[in-house]
Amino acid sequence: MRIMISQPMAGVSDEELRMKFNALSKEFAKLHIDVVDNIWQDAPTEGNYYTEPLFYLAKSINAMGQVDAVYFSPGWQNARGCCIEHKICELYGITILDGDFLDQIKYKK
Fold first, then answer.
1. Which of 36, 46, 90, 92 has a CA 20 to 30 Å removed from the CA of 82?
2. Residue 11 CA to chain centroid, in angstroms?
3. Cα(109)–Cα(104) distance, rounded to whole angstroms?
4. C-alpha pair distances (Å), 59 with each of 6, 19, 50
5. Domain spans, the chain
């Protein structure tokens, strides 16, 4: 299985995003689940405020076409990009893994 992680990014430093992503990736690796690295840092530097968020959202949508499921980190409901990714999963039949997915797996063991 191959997944993508959707996590709120607004107001979070690149270092903190990477740290959270790495921690979640390690947990999924224990379950033999591959995680697509979707922490990009190559946004265009020109344009208005919305250029960067839309650039990253477009890259995420592209990545969603290459995974079996998307894991939505807690708080996703409060992030525009995460809400759009969630709706795309619903519309295109991509499996949604809720924020408590990893806790549920640990509980079953």
1. 46
2. 16
3. 9
4. 12, 20, 14
5. 54-74+88-109
Please, what's the b/e burial string for 56-88 (b: 16 or more CB within 10 A of its CB; e: otherwise)?
bbeebeebbeebebbbbbeebeebebbeebbee
Distances (CA, A) of 62 to 18, 32, 37, 88: 20, 23, 12, 11
Find, among 80, 94, 93, 18, the residue nearest to 52 by Cα: 80
Stated pTM of the model: 0.86
